[in-house]
Amino acid sequence: MSKSLLVISRQAPWSGPSAREALDIVLAGGAFDLPIGLLFMDDGVFQLASDQNARAVQQKDLGANLQALELFGIDDVFACNHSLEVRGLNAPASAQGLGSDAIAHLLDRYDQVITL
Amino acid sequence: MSTLHVLSHSPFTDTRLDSCLRICGAEDAILLCGDGAYGLQNAALQGKGVKVFVLAEDSQARNLPLPDWADSVDYPGFVQLCVDYDKVNTWL
């Protein structure tokens, strides 16, 4: 049995490569059928905001990568409720909202954690 | 399952420590290194009940007094902690 991995993505989408790299790790893991989870927290939840326009800042859209998660068999996609609330964002359809205690338990469920 | 959270950013300019404390489990511990060592001066860590370690050379370099709620470790101690906890979560 392969080790399970939780990726925590906590950077805003257009501030640097971290957001894309976290998604790439998850998609690569999914392609190899690793048990993998993805948690958006802190500024990472801004990646889930709808109708973003990446081309305005000469970047490639992350939306396509987000949609690919399901295609790659990544069902465990979570978002931190606290991070969403303080940023005035609604709970996105693409991720399951979790409270702080639930996130502490989520970390326990995985063998390894990568925070970007 | 226990997690060792490694923090290397100053908590006074950055939200990593706050977020870490929010999701810290009962058996988890925090290791402060680099500018993360300034966390020793941060009231947020005090009285949280979470175990706190600091890398000795980083607290010494910054002349930070070691509070009674934190323990100092050297590099071999750092490695031992990584072995003792089920996993390591480095807040990059």
Automatic annotation (TrEMBL), chain A:
<dbReference type="InterPro" id="IPR003787">
    <property type="entry name" value="Sulphur_relay_DsrE/F-like"/>
</dbReference>
<comment type="similarity">
    <text>Belongs to the DsrF/TusC family.</text>
</comment>
<dbReference type="InterPro" id="IPR027396">
    <property type="entry name" value="DsrEFH-like"/>
</dbReference>
<dbReference type="InterPro" id="IPR017462">
    <property type="entry name" value="Sulphur_relay_TusC/DsrF"/>
</dbReference>
<dbReference type="Pfam" id="PF02635">
    <property type="entry name" value="DsrE"/>
</dbReference>
<protein>
    <submittedName>
        <fullName>tRNA 2-thiouridine synthesizing protein C</fullName>
    </submittedName>
</protein>
